[in-house]
User: Fold these one by one.
Assistant:
Number 1:
Amino acid sequence: MTKREQYIRITIFLLILGLFSLLLWYIGRPMLRFVSEPERFQLWMRERGFWGVAALVVMHMLQVFAAVIPSGPLSMAAGYAFGPFLGTVICVLADTAAAILLVLLVRRFGPKVLRLLTGKDPEQYRLFRKQRGLGWLLLFLFLIPGTPKDVMTYAVGMADLSLWAWLGINLVGRIPGVALSAYGGSSLSRGQLGWLIGICAFCAALYPLGMLLYKRYTKTQ
């Protein structure tokens, strides 16, 4: 990576982080203020209408582009604010939109987009390029909480996979992990700490399995 590319990458990352921080401040302040009164925070979010939902959507999309930002807390915040069902719908649609946009950018502008976003050699993301049954494999990996879905999104930009297949994989495959996090956030809003601890423990147990399966697959590429 040239120095110019490094400067551009740093600028992009800082812009993403800055916008994410502004949105986090917009939602996080009232959430902390009403942490002992979740119904007041939910009322606050409902009063914002479109803008409250839009803030969560944009934060989720930014998270996909800057994979260092964890998605779990955002899904929990959505469940806390809107309940498990609507929170899951909002997050899955946002993640899917970002995944489609990222693949389109890579296919339009080529490997340099991956280099700018990740700082890595684009050749590392060709792991799915010649894989038979790629769609079914990706769906299987996406259904397991803990697999690096954002990394796989970068890889798909280099793969021969239709956008319709990619759309379906995201809409279906992201549901289990997002739903668990959203339900955890909803449980927190209802004071059901036992459910929240149980969900967190379950996700923590699945994470190593997801990473093991992902690494086992990528080693064969």
Number 2:
Amino acid sequence: MFNIATVQKPAAQALQQDGLSLLSPDDLRSTLQLTAPDWASGWQGLTDSWNRLPPDAHLKDGGHYRKRRHACFVQDLAAATLTQTSHRAHWQPTDYNALHGGFERWFDPIEPAVAQAPAWTGLLAQLGKLFASVQPVAQWYVEAHQFRIDTAGGVGRPTPEGAHRDGVNFVVVLMVARQGVKGGETRVFDANGPQGVRFVMQQPLTALLLDDARVIHETTPIFPADGAAVPGFRDTLVLTYRATGFQSP
């Protein structure tokens, strides 16, 4: 299933055959047709918002290493619309998240200037169209999570719940920034077997696309880079696409 050829296939083909696709920044832009200069400059203008994420108040391991914001959208494929919903809690069953599942987690909303920006909505919509070419659906229920994991306490855990699935159709992990850290190896494994791949996402706009029914994933802890004078951080955008509505109690 998994080998180096996986990351060299077109994204739709890789998702169909392997359940995952790892895209370089150039491949992401070309695959999603985000090649206009105004998209690149527009996206760059949004990245500063990761500096304004509030702390995640729901970490059950007692840590203070994660900051985040959250928003939800509905994409109508036939009408070619992407509509932000009223703010809602994030909920997962314990079957998928034994550590943080089973209760409603309210996070501060993604800033309106970010969630309504053409660069943001264009990215989400084009990803939805790609996923619909793999699994045809009428609508996607999309959850967006801005994450910052830092090393101010010595260690930061991108996935404190461990290797997991999310209970959706597709998952996207987009690298936004990585500064002054080491570690943070992303691992993706066949949900029904021992095969897997491991890699470190380094460049901004590197994207990992996952078929959530077929693979499990995790990212190992991050630590301050050798010789780093100040705490480092790892910023990502995580998107989930689900065909049958938002998960709820």
Number 3:
Amino acid sequence: MTDPRASIIEAAFEDRAQLAAAAETVLAVVEDLDKGRLRVASPLPDGTWQVHAWVQKAVGLYFAVAPMAEHDAGPFHFHDKVPLKQDLAAQGVRIVPGGIVRYGAYLERGVVVMPGFVNIGARVGAGSMVDAWATVGSCAQIGSGVHLSGGVGIGGVLEPPGARPVIIEDDCFIGSRCILVEGVHVGRGAVLGANTVITASTPILDVRGETPQRSHGFVPPRAVVIPGTRPKQFPAGEFEIPCALIIGERSASTDTKTSLNDTLRSFAL
């Protein structure tokens, strides 16, 4: 069933003369994102994901209707259109000093944010960790039991409306300094080794068989992926360009190693 607010948002996005009349609706939609009542993208029973473009548009319009305001967080002072997320204890989430989560992002119970950043429109599932200096971009969808290791960069997306955000499904382990952007989708339980960079055009090569199998934009469930290079010919000569290599499937021993991070998620609520 289509949300009746969608038509209001769509009209205001196409004709900014209607924005003033739609302002309350825009604010209500972003509040619903903040409370977890809405999300930018939703999983479907067949394993695919549906992007709700009108919700993305509402996030974009929020910047037009929200006023600049000054905010204090202890000794820190901010001047921005988007305030910080509030009522953390009641929501059962832990944000370490230096961690920043903007209003309009939703964190399920048990999420830990080290000195990292979660942007508006993003969603992080129960028990996941955003480790030190990791960033979760606008509208990114992070599943439950995910560990985003130190320095991970998850790209955001607001435009064009309908563009798929980065999606990381449940129980994934994303190694230090990995970068995932441009709507990359990581299947449940996958493990990405440190420094793996995947964009929409990055070749993902499954090298477990006799010949490499090439794909783009999707890491299969439980795949173990490491960064690699492959040769490519240019007018100036042959050079190595980045790729991602699927070298195996997550095993019980891999599960044991990554489960050590559960201790970092344990805290009194």
Number 4:
Amino acid sequence: MSDVLTLTAPRTDVPVRRTAPSLPALVGLEMRKSLSTRSGKALAVAGMLMAPLATAAIGAASTERLPVADGPLGIMGLLTAYLLISLGVLSTAGEWSHRTVQTTFLLVPHRGRVLAAKVAAVAQLGAAVAAVSTALTAGALAVVESGMSWDGAVRAMGAAVVGGAAFAVIGAGVGAALANTPAALTGLYLLLLGAMSVLSTFKPDVADRIDPANAVLHFAHGTETTQSVVNLAGWLAVTTVAGWTLTHRRAVQ
């Protein structure tokens, strides 16, 4: 009696379980990471409270009454958006500055997925912080200003939310491109607050078309909508593509 060994081909119809985390899971992780540090928490709290506190202080000290709410809401929304740039920069450049990028890319060895998750995370965080800030700002305006017209207030609040999300993503893109937190923050603020101000003095038409701050203000006032969409879309595209390209070319050390 002899034993016969029979070999069978391995089954190919067994589904393979995906081991990499899904993009929504990565986005949630990146949101928690951004808020897990003291600097991230401080930026989020400051972003929520700075504009309403400034509104209350200015309103209490001013003797002139504001006729409509959309202008102040747009300006204070822009103030919050400028602060949220730092939140975006820290989410990407902070990883390189603190050498945590090695662990991040070891756990998820797909740089494009990581950057996409960071962009989505800071966009949601920026929108959420801006939404809370503009709601509190509207409340402060209602307290310190009497007889103000609220026509266009909802539009201005929406512009503030869009601006917060957009500026956070711009910060993330530049942070990913430069991989250096001080350089990214200094360069962005010099460009947006310095160079754009100089350009608006000598070439106001050009500055109006390319300054993202003007796009937010136009949204708040309901003017130049198409130009503002193109303006912000251009900034988002250039910064995210630059961040994606340079992140893929950079060696992790």
